[in-house]
Amino acid sequence: MTEVENRMAYGAFDNWGYNKKLKPLVGNLRRNMTKSEACLWKYALKAKQLKGYQFRRQRPVLNYIADFICKELMLIIEIDGITHDAETSLAKDKNREEDLNRAGFKLIRFTDEEVLKNISGVVTAIEAEVETIEKSTPLIPRQRGTRNTHNSKKGNYDKVSFTGRTTFDESIKNEMMEKNVAVFLDRDGTINEEVGYLDRLDKLKTITTAYEAIKLINLSGMKAVVISNQAGVARGFFTEEFVNTVNNHLLADLKKKGASIDKFYYCPHHPEDGKGEYLQNCGCRKPAPGMLLQAAQELNIDLANSYFVGDRFIDMETAKKVGAKGILVKTGYGEDLLQDDGPDTASPENKPDFIAADILEAVQWILKDRKNIK
Ligand SMILES: [Mg+2]
Ligand SMILES: [Zn+2]
Q1: How buried is residue 119: exposed, middle or buried, by Cβ count under 10 Å (0-12/13-18/19+)?
Q2: Reported pTM
Q3: Rounded to whole angstroms, what are the CA distances from 317 to 10, 232, 323, 355?
Q4: Is residue 20 predicted with pLDDT exceeding 70?
Q5: pLDDT above 90 covers what percent of the chain?
Q6: pLDDT band at 180, cuts 50/70/90?
Q7: CATH number of the domain to which 222 belongs
């Protein structure tokens, strides 16, 4: 295969790596651009403003969704937004950057603050990067001033020959396309006893059947991922640091009995009742699917084949939004909800696929369901 064929085969210039399942989610992300994303798009990238190159936003590349991408330049621009766990995110970002680099993409990133405070400096930096790429790849099909004459449809690139900026290893693609299935787990009322706001460590009590349940998930090869609303942070009842402390204690307790959680996610926000940055209508508070989308990117998860176990209807609704199955447990608020006496009400959007006594029965149902599918 020549370099061109190689790149064409992977659709470097068309739909390479496009994941249809992510399509509705991408649409959602596009509608909910952060302020800095919107700023960069409007003032630097849209309508071929940047040296005539066509950029697109929120495009799936490999298994990631790139904030902005120019396929011709194989250039990705990421803006780092709010992260709940900066250190882990940095490590994940580094992995992602390595993956993308191996696939021949160049990735540059800016912070929200850089974009919002110094857009012209950001534009200058991007232009410098583009010039470097142009110099190292002289045969890039130029888009500059060719809006009407240069048809960017796939066919026209057949005649163009490329220098070997990219060498693509097929094994990388396969490795990255193999997706994980996850069992998303609500925390309070599902893994540990529901105690209202869990604001003291001595209130943390693991539900007795959770050890075996989570161990079964671990053994199955599925990912065990905790997805939790922690609006107590927004309300000033406890800090994010405390949420992390609780999660670490829970993890340590589970590990004592051979069970483990692959990753914890939580939303510290609240739309009406919050202080400072925590007061916001965010995309992560369940039933919004933001935490699942983030997990899907970071842990390479096939959402449509995944499961959500929780004690509230909002957990079921979160599952439905990404095409996952929802299992309602009767622990926590579950039993009350079924008597129409819980914090949220039943609706067609949040109907559970199964109702289980507890997390263990839920996981046993999932394992059976997986067998039926295969
Ligand atoms: Mg709960
Ligand atoms: Zn949130």
Answers
A1: middle
A2: 0.56
A3: 36, 21, 10, 14
A4: no
A5: 50
A6: very high
A7: 3.40.50.1000
Place of tokens 């914090």: 343
**DSSP character at residue 348:** G
What confidence tier does 141 reach under pLDDT thresholds 50, 70, 90? low
47 within some domain: yes
Same domain, 196 and 140: no
Residue 282 C-alpha to ligand 2 middle, in angstroms?
5
* The two structure tokens encoding residue 211: 């050890």
Helix, strand, coil percentages, rounded to 5, for the chain: 45, 15, 40
Tokens linked to 133: 């790429």
> Which of 186, 189, 288, 280 is closest to 233 using CA atoms?
280
Domain-ending residue, one of 170, 192, 218: 170
Say how many Å lie between the CA of residue 288 and the centre of ligand 1.
15
- Of residues 14 and 262, the one with the higher pLDDT is 262
- DSSP string covering 42-76: IIIIGGGTTTT---EEEEEETTEEEEEEETTTTEE
User: Which active-site residues does the annotation give?
Assistant: 186, 188
CA of 257 to the centre of ligand 2 (A): 31
Going across the sheet that includes 75-80, the strands are 56-61, 64-70, 75-80, 106-111
